[in-house]
Amino acid sequence: MRKRREEAKAKREADGRAPGADAAPVKEDSSDSDSNDGDSDDEARMQEKKAKAAQKLDASKKSEASKKKKEKAMAKEAEDTTGSNLPVIKSIDIKKMNPTAIKDALKERGESTQGQKKDLIKRLMDFEAARG
After folding, report:
1. How far is it, in rounded angstroms, from Cα 61 to Cα 90?
2. Is residue 64 domain-shared with residue 92, that is, in the same domain?
């Protein structure tokens, strides 16, 4: 380990860089200290920080993409509940439908399917009247 540090120090000095500096050359400092023992540790910490920052960036991009997907799904669900893509059922046709068919139509429109036939008919007719 000491040998690597000494080699790195010699290379930095040959490049004209200060201890712990990046690739840009810097004026040499007249004070000659032996505090270069932590250089590789500092570099390792810097690399760890950069890696963590990159991971956070990736995570934020992924969460942003998942938010967009959720928003699209919610918009699609909102379209389905408003019944904008469903055919309009006339009140005469609603009255002729059996309870199972009425319940299916209510489910498609996001309405409650509980109650007697007359309640289901009223609920579906009210929905269709509000829609158009």
Report:
1. 47
2. no
